[in-house]
Amino acid sequence: MSRVAIGLAGLGRMGRVHLGNLAGRCPSAILACVYDVDPVVAEQAAAEYDVPWTASFDELLDACDAVAVATSTASHAPLVEAAADAGRSVFCEKPVSADRASAVAAVEAVERAGVLLQVGFHRRYDPDWAAAARRIHDGELGEVTFFRTSLRDMTSPPASFLTGSGGFFTDVTVHDLDVARWLVGEVVEVHAHGAAANPEFARLGDIDTAVVVLRFDNGALGVIDNSRSAGYGYECSTEVMGTAATARIDAPHRHGYEWRTPGLASRDLVRDFEQRYPYAYAAELEAFARCVLTDTEPLAGGRDAIAASDLAEAATRSWRTGAPVRLSPRRTAAGIDYSSEVPA
Ligand SMILES: NC(=O)c1ccc[n+]([C@@H]2O[C@H](COP(=O)([O-])OP(=O)(O)OC[C@H]3O[C@@H](n4cnc5c(N)ncnc54)[C@H](O)[C@@H]3O)[C@@H](O)[C@H]2O)c1
């Protein structure tokens, strides 16, 4: 096998990004078939990309070597389990589940079946983030002392998405919590503050703005700021300070030109995650296909997904109680385990 035939489940906002990438930007993958619970959506995508479509996940599994899951969050865990039981490796969008027991069951099904699971922590595959990570991990920064990251959407997703999202920390901050673990290390304290600038979020029992303060086991401090609706654009940027250097990954402009008038220069900002991460989303699926071809564990695996979700759950508890949550992650044979602090 020189290319992996990948079936794509879920053709909404994120699924459409994966669709374009699988159809032409992943040399180790072939888009085998598409599926959505809405057959009209699946049929339209199939016609647009000239690929087969199906109205059944079982048929999708029959048509592919491996599957990419970009359906709504609540369906991830059962689809991952079904794929694993059918012997298919899975790329799954984050989070694997908003419910810890379901996420663990899905990851254990994957491990039992001996297939691979990669989770959609796309920043790990972005060229800028990956270059910074390599140098940090090689020790060029010296001792890491401080981590700062911002993730801000320009506009909020629709209420229909929010109600099934798992809540702010599980849906949004989970990306930053994964990056914190990846770039700096394990977290021993989370103190989260949240607010609903838009009262609609309060009505849903959720928030749209948050600050999360982290303590790492190496003594470093961290701060995450998040917004669902920054208004000006989509921002995702990070700094990692060390005793020898500081790595900064800035939010890029949309285009390489600016428009100048007397006393004023203006430039387009990126508006959403698709514009910010064109390379990362293609690279993560290419990396997944290569992992399947070489039977190599993905960089962002199931245990990373559970760890980041556990930290998100700790942030949720901290926000609700107003108190910091102390953590003592343990290294086990299966991977890092934050479970003792986060009740199922
Ligand atoms: N990695 C990222 O940057 C990123 C960005 C956005 C969304 N996401 C994640 O991607 C997932 C999808 O988000 P979205 O914004 O595309 O949502 P969406 O609501 O726009 O799309 C979801 C699609 O899945 C389909 N669907 C729902 N349940 C299904 C099922 N059981 N079987 C088949 N199809 C089903 C829906 O019909 C819809 O077409 C979410 O889990 C979200 O957390 C990740």
How does this model look, in words?
- This protein has 344 residues and is an alpha/beta fold.
- The protein has twelve helices and 17 strands.
- The chain has a seven-stranded mixed β-sheet. Strands 3-2-1-4-5-6 form a six-stranded parallel β-sheet, with helices on both faces. A two-stranded antiparallel ribbon has the order 13-14.
- The radius of gyration is 20 Å and the shape is globular.
- The termini are far apart.
- The site of nicotinamide-adenine-dinucleotide has 24 residues, from helix 1.
Structural descriptors:
Rossmann fold, alpha/beta, binds nicotinamide-adenine-dinucleotide, 344 residues, Dihydrodipicolinate Reductase, domain 2, 6-stranded parallel β-sheet, 12 helices, globular
Broad structural category: alpha/beta
Give the terminus-to-terminus CA distance. Answer: 40 Å
User: CATH architecture of the largest domain, please?
Assistant: 2-Layer Sandwich
Order of strands, widest sheet: 12-11-7-10-9-8-15
Topology pattern, helix = H, strand = E: EHEHEHEHEHEHEHHEHEEEEEEHHHEEE
Low-confidence stretches: none
CATH homologous superfamily heading of the largest domain:
Dihydrodipicolinate Reductase, domain 2
Mean pLDDT: 96
For the largest beta-sheet, the strand count, sense and barrel status come to:
7 strands, mixed
Which ligands are bound? Answer: nicotinamide-adenine-dinucleotide
Gross morphology: globular
CATH class of the largest domain: Alpha Beta
Looking at the structure, the CATH topology of the largest domain is Dihydrodipicolinate Reductase, domain 2
Summed up, the helix count is 12
